Amino acid sequence: MRPKAKYAVIYRHRNEYPVSVMCRFFQVSRSGYYDFVHRMGRPEKDAAIAEIIAEQRERSFCTYGYRRMWLVLKKRGIHRNPKTILRIMEKYDLLAEIRRRRKWQQMGQQVHKYKNLLNREFSADRPNSKWVTDISYIHTKQGVLYLSMIRDLYDNSIVAYKTGTEQTVNLVLDTIRLAMRREKKRAAAELQLHSDQGFQYTSQAYFNLTKSYGITPSMSRRGNCYDNAMAENFFSILKTECIYRHKPASICEANEMIDRYIHFYNYERIQLKTGVAPLTLRHSH
Predict the structure, then answer these.
(1) How far is the C-alpha of 235 from the C-alpha of 242, rounded, in Å?
(2) Is 80 exceeded by the pLDDT of residue 218?
(3) Is 0.70 surpassed by the pTM of this model?
(4) Where are the alpha helices (DSSP H) in 192-243?
(5) What is the pLDDT of residues 15-58, one digit of tens each?
(6) DSSP code of 222?
(7) Which of 201, 193, 208, 175 is nearest to 128 (CA)?
(8) Nearest-CA neighbor of 26 among 51, 60, 2?
(9) Within its chain, how far is the Cα of 133 from the centroid?
(10) CA–CA distance, 72 with 57 (Å, rounded to integer)
């Protein structure tokens, strides 16, 4: 039992037993007890910080761990040790939820295959030079919603995304078209687009579209999800920080949740490596 808890017991029974006897029984000092009594009714020293953390926790969809909370507090002029922030979050039950792992799956026929040009070099020195792409699924009571997205390895932002109720080649092609409409003027001459070996990415239509845009396809090795880990990573973040916790009932609700979360992810969610949101990094250069 912690001293604070012992002092609380002594206080409750102060009219039944001598305080000095109870202090000896619980092996605590009388000065510590009277200090406890003196502080009763005053707010705890961590309460103000805990309130700020709780507010930010709601803004971040309850996804920030103590490191990101430490960065948030630091920007607000509150300087504490990261371990102190962890202790406060544990004390007030403000911890983030733990992520689940996503399993890799391959399906469909393969027409075109490409070399693994990315080769797990998950960084880029300029925007729109290395993109990764993938499709994942969101379960709802109305059925499955498929999400196709493109992520830029320069700042980890989501360049473009599309959803649909069927996992088709067109879903992938529409995602690429949207990305190129937004970024074509700023795209690097040697834009690399990395994917897994899903049938959409090995199709003739994918080959034709990437060629028309001057995009160089790159592809993971067979059955090796780590080659496209940065795409997998985003879906893991999205599902554990948003989808798994709120469980959309309908396709419409799932779409709204994805829109809100990707906006939050691009514009607000702090990255531990940079200390800022993805698009903050892009717009600062």
Answers:
(1) 10
(2) yes
(3) no
(4) 204-213, 229-238
(5) 888 888 888 888 888 878 877 777 776 666 777 888 888 888 88
(6) T
(7) 193
(8) 2
(9) 17
(10) 11
Nearest C-alpha neighbor of 239 from the set 266, 257, 225: 257
CA distance 60 to 63: 6
Q: Quick check: 114 and 227 in contact, CB under 8 A?
A: no
Contact criterion met (CB below 8 Å) for 59 and 268: yes
d(CA 176, CA 205): 12
Which pair of structure tokens corresponds to residue 231? 């795409």
Instruction: Give yes or no for a contact between 42 and 84, defined as CB atoms under 8 angstroms apart.
Output: no
The strand order across the sheet containing 130-140 reads 158-164, 143-152, 130-140, 192-195, 216-219
> Do 94 and 72 meet the contact criterion of CB atoms below 8 Å apart?
no
- Measured distance CA(231)–CA(255) in Å, rounded: 19
CB atoms within 10 A of CB 214: 12
Sequence-separated (6 or more) residues with CB below 8 Å from residue 237: 63, 99, 265
Give the Å distances, CA to CA, from 251 to 63, 169, 221, 237, 282.
Answer: 23, 20, 33, 20, 32
